[in-house]
Protein backbone atom coordinates (compact mmCIF):
# COMPACT_ATOMS: atom_id res chain seq x y z
CA UNK A 1 0.00 0.00 0.00
CA UNK A 2 1.24 3.49 -0.77
CA UNK A 3 0.01 7.07 -0.59
CA UNK A 4 0.57 9.74 -3.24
CA UNK A 5 -0.09 13.45 -3.71
CA UNK A 6 1.12 15.31 -6.78
CA UNK A 7 0.38 18.42 -8.82
CA UNK A 8 1.63 19.40 -12.30
CA UNK A 9 1.97 22.85 -13.92
CA UNK A 10 2.37 24.39 -17.38
CA UNK A 11 4.35 27.65 -17.02
CA UNK A 12 4.20 30.12 -19.90
CA UNK A 13 7.07 31.45 -22.05
CA UNK A 14 7.65 34.45 -19.76
CA UNK A 15 8.12 32.15 -16.77
CA UNK A 16 10.71 30.11 -18.67
CA UNK A 17 12.72 33.29 -19.20
CA UNK A 18 13.18 33.48 -15.41
CA UNK A 19 15.69 30.62 -15.81
CA UNK A 20 13.97 27.75 -14.01
CA UNK A 21 10.36 26.64 -13.90
CA UNK A 22 8.67 23.99 -11.82
CA UNK A 23 6.70 21.46 -13.87
CA UNK A 24 5.42 19.42 -10.95
CA UNK A 25 5.79 18.54 -7.29
CA UNK A 26 4.78 15.46 -5.35
CA UNK A 27 4.98 13.65 -2.03
CA UNK A 28 4.75 9.87 -1.79
CA UNK A 29 5.40 7.14 0.74
CA UNK A 30 5.05 3.40 1.15
CA UNK A 31 5.69 0.48 -1.19
CA UNK A 32 5.61 2.63 -4.34
CA UNK A 33 5.44 1.07 -7.83
CA UNK A 34 8.59 0.60 -9.88
CA UNK A 35 9.42 3.60 -12.09
CA UNK A 36 10.58 2.93 -15.65
CA UNK A 37 12.45 2.06 -17.58
CA UNK A 38 11.63 5.46 -19.08
CA UNK A 39 13.32 8.58 -20.46
CA UNK A 40 12.22 12.17 -19.75
CA UNK A 41 12.76 15.48 -21.52
CA UNK A 42 13.23 17.44 -18.28
CA UNK A 43 14.93 17.20 -14.89
CA UNK A 44 13.52 15.56 -11.77
CA UNK A 45 14.98 15.68 -8.26
CA UNK A 46 13.70 12.78 -6.15
CA UNK A 47 14.57 13.29 -2.48
CA UNK A 48 14.34 10.07 -0.48
CA UNK A 49 13.80 11.00 3.14
CA UNK A 50 13.34 7.53 4.68
CA UNK A 51 13.63 3.92 3.55
CA UNK A 52 15.70 2.20 0.89
CA UNK A 53 15.52 0.83 -2.64
CA UNK A 54 17.52 0.55 -5.85
CA UNK A 55 18.43 2.43 -9.03
CA UNK A 56 19.35 0.72 -12.31
CA UNK A 57 21.69 2.63 -14.64
CA UNK A 58 21.39 2.42 -18.45
CA UNK A 59 24.48 0.18 -18.50
CA UNK A 60 22.80 -2.31 -16.16
CA UNK A 61 24.60 -1.34 -12.94
CA UNK A 62 22.33 -1.62 -9.90
CA UNK A 63 22.93 0.90 -7.09
CA UNK A 64 21.45 0.59 -3.63
CA UNK A 65 19.59 3.72 -2.51
CA UNK A 66 19.57 4.35 1.23
CA UNK A 67 17.93 7.42 2.75
CA UNK A 68 18.72 10.23 2.95
CA UNK A 69 19.53 10.30 -0.73
CA UNK A 70 18.87 12.16 -3.97
CA UNK A 71 18.02 10.63 -7.34
CA UNK A 72 18.89 12.87 -10.29
CA UNK A 73 16.73 12.09 -13.31
CA UNK A 74 18.14 14.07 -16.24
CA UNK A 75 16.81 14.66 -19.76
CA UNK A 76 17.54 11.96 -22.31
CA UNK A 77 18.98 9.50 -19.77
CA UNK A 78 16.98 6.26 -19.30
CA UNK A 79 16.26 5.43 -15.67
CA UNK A 80 14.67 2.60 -13.71
CA UNK A 81 14.23 2.60 -9.92
CA UNK A 82 12.01 1.52 -7.06
CA UNK A 83 11.81 1.40 -3.28
CA UNK A 84 12.08 -1.93 -1.49
CA UNK A 85 8.94 -3.97 -1.97
CA UNK A 86 8.41 -4.54 1.74
CA UNK A 87 9.34 -1.33 3.53
CA UNK A 88 9.03 1.17 0.69
CA UNK A 89 10.37 4.68 1.12
CA UNK A 90 9.29 8.28 1.74
CA UNK A 91 10.02 10.62 -1.20
CA UNK A 92 9.39 14.13 -2.41
CA UNK A 93 9.93 14.94 -6.07
CA UNK A 94 10.18 18.09 -8.16
CA UNK A 95 10.04 18.19 -11.97
CA UNK A 96 11.74 21.24 -13.47
CA UNK A 97 13.34 22.67 -16.58
CA UNK A 98 14.69 25.94 -17.97
CA UNK A 99 17.82 27.48 -19.52
CA UNK A 100 19.48 27.87 -16.09
CA UNK A 101 19.80 24.08 -15.77
CA UNK A 102 22.87 24.27 -18.03
CA UNK A 103 24.57 26.73 -15.68
CA UNK A 104 23.65 24.76 -12.58
CA UNK A 105 25.13 21.68 -14.26
CA UNK A 106 28.32 23.58 -15.08
CA UNK A 107 28.58 24.68 -11.44
CA UNK A 108 28.09 21.11 -10.21
CA UNK A 109 24.68 21.58 -8.60
CA UNK A 110 23.12 19.14 -11.07
CA UNK A 111 25.17 16.00 -11.77
CA UNK A 112 23.96 14.02 -14.81
CA UNK A 113 26.77 11.47 -14.40
CA UNK A 114 25.88 10.80 -10.77
CA UNK A 115 22.22 9.74 -10.55
CA UNK A 116 22.37 8.56 -6.92
CA UNK A 117 23.76 11.11 -4.45
CA UNK A 118 24.01 10.34 -0.71
CA UNK A 119 22.84 13.22 1.46
CA UNK A 120 23.95 14.08 4.97
CA UNK A 121 20.48 15.38 5.80
CA UNK A 122 17.34 15.76 3.69
CA UNK A 123 15.59 18.15 6.10
CA UNK A 124 16.38 21.36 4.21
CA UNK A 125 15.41 19.97 0.81
CA UNK A 126 12.19 18.46 2.13
CA UNK A 127 11.27 21.79 3.72
CA UNK A 128 11.59 23.49 0.32
CA UNK A 129 9.48 20.79 -1.34
CA UNK A 130 6.89 21.22 1.39
CA UNK A 131 6.67 24.95 0.67
CA UNK A 132 6.29 24.20 -3.02
CA UNK A 133 3.45 21.82 -2.26
CA UNK A 134 1.70 24.49 -0.20
CA UNK A 135 2.17 27.00 -3.03
CA UNK A 136 0.65 24.55 -5.51
CA UNK A 137 -2.96 25.37 -4.69
CA UNK A 138 -4.88 26.06 -7.87
CA UNK A 139 -6.07 29.50 -6.76
CA UNK A 140 -2.53 30.82 -6.18
CA UNK A 141 -1.91 33.66 -8.69
CA UNK A 142 1.83 33.55 -7.93
CA UNK A 143 2.09 29.80 -8.50
CA UNK A 144 4.57 29.69 -11.39
CA UNK A 145 6.91 32.38 -10.05
CA UNK A 146 6.78 31.10 -6.48
CA UNK A 147 7.49 27.48 -7.39
CA UNK A 148 10.11 28.49 -9.98
CA UNK A 149 11.99 30.52 -7.36
CA UNK A 150 11.78 27.54 -5.02
CA UNK A 151 13.55 25.33 -7.59
CA UNK A 152 16.61 27.60 -7.26
CA UNK A 153 16.35 27.26 -3.48
CA UNK A 154 16.00 23.49 -3.76
CA UNK A 155 19.18 23.17 -5.82
CA UNK A 156 21.08 25.14 -3.18
CA UNK A 157 19.62 23.02 -0.36
CA UNK A 158 20.58 19.80 -2.17
CA UNK A 159 24.09 21.04 -2.83
CA UNK A 160 24.49 21.97 0.83
CA UNK A 161 23.20 18.54 1.95
CA UNK A 162 25.55 16.44 -0.18
CA UNK A 163 27.29 13.97 2.10
CA UNK A 164 30.58 14.13 0.16
CA UNK A 165 31.01 17.85 0.92
CA UNK A 166 31.16 17.55 4.68
CA UNK A 167 33.16 18.03 6.72
CA UNK A 168 36.61 18.20 5.07
CA UNK A 169 35.68 20.03 1.87
CA UNK A 170 33.73 22.63 3.80
CA UNK A 171 36.69 23.20 6.13
CA UNK A 172 38.96 23.96 3.14
CA UNK A 173 36.45 26.46 1.73
CA UNK A 174 36.08 28.18 5.09
CA UNK A 175 39.85 28.44 5.46
CA UNK A 176 40.19 29.87 1.95
CA UNK A 177 37.47 32.43 2.71
CA UNK A 178 39.24 33.41 5.93
CA UNK A 179 42.60 33.87 4.16
CA UNK A 180 41.28 35.15 0.83
CA UNK A 181 42.64 38.68 1.25
CA UNK A 182 46.15 37.60 2.16
CA UNK A 183 48.68 38.11 -0.66
CA UNK A 184 48.91 34.38 -1.37
CA UNK A 185 48.87 32.51 -4.69
CA UNK A 186 46.69 29.45 -5.29
CA UNK A 187 49.84 27.32 -4.89
CA UNK A 188 50.53 29.04 -1.54
CA UNK A 189 46.99 28.27 -0.35
CA UNK A 190 47.36 24.65 -1.44
CA UNK A 191 50.66 24.24 0.39
CA UNK A 192 49.12 25.77 3.51
CA UNK A 193 46.58 22.94 3.54
CA UNK A 194 49.08 20.22 2.69
CA UNK A 195 47.58 19.82 -0.78
CA UNK A 196 48.85 20.03 -4.33
CA UNK A 197 47.30 22.76 -6.51
CA UNK A 198 45.45 20.02 -8.42
CA UNK A 199 43.99 18.60 -5.19
CA UNK A 200 42.90 22.07 -4.10
CA UNK A 201 41.26 22.68 -7.48
CA UNK A 202 39.34 19.42 -7.16
CA UNK A 203 38.20 20.21 -3.62
CA UNK A 204 37.07 23.74 -4.47
CA UNK A 205 35.39 22.67 -7.70
CA UNK A 206 33.47 19.98 -5.83
CA UNK A 207 32.49 22.29 -3.00
CA UNK A 208 31.93 25.64 -4.72
CA UNK A 209 31.52 24.80 -8.40
CA UNK A 210 34.40 27.02 -9.51
CA UNK A 211 38.18 27.23 -9.52
CA UNK A 212 40.14 28.35 -6.43
CA UNK A 213 41.13 31.51 -8.33
CA UNK A 214 37.51 32.45 -9.00
CA UNK A 215 36.45 31.52 -5.46
CA UNK A 216 39.13 33.76 -3.93
CA UNK A 217 38.46 36.54 -6.44
CA UNK A 218 34.77 36.62 -5.58
CA UNK A 219 35.55 37.07 -1.89
CA UNK A 220 38.24 39.68 -2.55
CA UNK A 221 36.01 41.77 -4.81
CA UNK A 222 33.13 41.54 -2.36
CA UNK A 223 35.37 42.86 0.40
CA UNK A 224 36.71 45.59 -1.90
CA UNK A 225 33.16 46.73 -2.67
CA UNK A 226 32.39 46.96 1.06
CA UNK A 227 35.48 49.10 1.66
CA UNK A 228 34.72 51.35 -1.31
CA UNK A 229 31.10 51.81 -0.23
CA UNK A 230 31.66 52.37 3.48
CA UNK A 231 35.10 53.96 3.93
CA UNK A 232 37.12 56.82 2.47
CA UNK A 233 40.23 54.68 1.97
CA UNK A 234 42.09 55.48 -1.27
CA UNK A 235 41.72 52.86 -3.99
CA UNK A 236 45.38 51.87 -3.54
CA UNK A 237 44.73 51.17 0.15
CA UNK A 238 41.62 49.16 -0.70
CA UNK A 239 43.69 47.13 -3.16
CA UNK A 240 46.26 46.32 -0.46
CA UNK A 241 43.53 45.40 2.03
CA UNK A 242 42.20 42.75 -0.32
CA UNK A 243 45.56 41.29 -1.30
CA UNK A 244 46.79 43.30 -4.31
CA UNK A 245 50.05 45.24 -4.05
CA UNK A 246 49.58 46.75 -7.51
CA UNK A 247 46.64 49.20 -7.44
CA UNK A 248 46.63 49.53 -11.24
CA UNK A 249 46.24 45.77 -11.65
CA UNK A 250 43.49 45.77 -9.00
CA UNK A 251 41.63 48.56 -10.82
CA UNK A 252 41.84 46.71 -14.15
CA UNK A 253 40.66 43.47 -12.56
CA UNK A 254 37.84 45.20 -10.68
CA UNK A 255 36.69 47.00 -13.84
CA UNK A 256 36.73 43.83 -15.92
CA UNK A 257 34.76 41.74 -13.41
CA UNK A 258 32.40 44.38 -11.96
CA UNK A 259 31.79 46.36 -15.13
CA UNK A 260 32.91 49.70 -13.76
CA UNK A 261 36.04 51.23 -12.21
CA UNK A 262 36.45 51.29 -8.43
CA UNK A 263 36.05 55.09 -8.33
CA UNK A 264 32.77 54.88 -10.21
CA UNK A 265 31.51 52.12 -7.96
CA UNK A 266 32.32 54.29 -4.94
CA UNK A 267 30.52 57.28 -6.48
CA UNK A 268 27.39 55.16 -6.88
CA UNK A 269 27.45 53.22 -3.61
CA UNK A 270 29.24 55.40 -1.03
CA UNK A 271 27.12 55.62 2.12
CA UNK A 272 29.20 56.33 5.22
CA UNK A 273 26.87 56.98 8.15
CA UNK A 274 27.30 57.98 11.81
CA UNK A 275 27.91 54.93 13.94
CA UNK A 276 30.23 53.26 11.49
CA UNK A 277 30.17 50.02 9.55
CA UNK A 278 30.22 46.48 10.92
CA UNK A 279 31.47 43.28 9.34
CA UNK A 280 29.36 41.14 11.64
CA UNK A 281 26.56 39.11 10.06
CA UNK A 282 23.27 40.53 11.41
CA UNK A 283 21.29 38.30 13.74
CA UNK A 284 17.76 37.97 12.27
CA UNK A 285 16.42 38.20 15.81
CA UNK A 286 18.33 41.45 16.42
CA UNK A 287 18.43 43.48 13.17
CA UNK A 288 19.85 47.00 12.94
CA UNK A 289 17.30 49.55 14.17
CA UNK A 290 17.35 53.29 13.53
CA UNK A 291 17.79 55.29 16.68
CA UNK A 292 18.54 52.36 18.97
CA UNK A 293 20.83 53.19 21.86
CA UNK A 294 23.66 50.78 22.40
TrEMBL record:
<dbReference type="InterPro" id="IPR018060">
    <property type="entry name" value="HTH_AraC"/>
</dbReference>
<dbReference type="InterPro" id="IPR020449">
    <property type="entry name" value="Tscrpt_reg_AraC-type_HTH"/>
</dbReference>
<keyword id="KW-0010">Activator</keyword>
<protein>
    <submittedName>
        <fullName>AraC-like DNA-binding protein</fullName>
    </submittedName>
</protein>
<dbReference type="InterPro" id="IPR050204">
    <property type="entry name" value="AraC_XylS_family_regulators"/>
</dbReference>
<feature type="domain" description="HTH araC/xylS-type">
    <location>
        <begin position="170"/>
        <end position="268"/>
    </location>
</feature>
<keyword id="KW-0238">DNA-binding</keyword>
<dbReference type="InterPro" id="IPR003313">
    <property type="entry name" value="AraC-bd"/>
</dbReference>
<keyword id="KW-0805">Transcription regulation</keyword>
<dbReference type="Pfam" id="PF12833">
    <property type="entry name" value="HTH_18"/>
</dbReference>
<dbReference type="InterPro" id="IPR037923">
    <property type="entry name" value="HTH-like"/>
</dbReference>
<dbReference type="InterPro" id="IPR018062">
    <property type="entry name" value="HTH_AraC-typ_CS"/>
</dbReference>
<keyword id="KW-0804">Transcription</keyword>
<dbReference type="InterPro" id="IPR009057">
    <property type="entry name" value="Homeodomain-like_sf"/>
</dbReference>
<dbReference type="Pfam" id="PF02311">
    <property type="entry name" value="AraC_binding"/>
</dbReference>
Amino acid sequence: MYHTWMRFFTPGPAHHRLGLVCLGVGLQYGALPTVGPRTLDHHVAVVVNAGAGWYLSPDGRRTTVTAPALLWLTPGVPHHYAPDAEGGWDEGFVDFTGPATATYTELGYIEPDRPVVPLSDATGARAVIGRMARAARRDNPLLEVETGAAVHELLVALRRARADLAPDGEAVLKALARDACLPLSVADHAAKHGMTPAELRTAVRRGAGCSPKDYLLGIRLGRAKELLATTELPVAAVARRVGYDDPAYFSRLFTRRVGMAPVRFRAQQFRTVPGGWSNQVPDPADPPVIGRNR
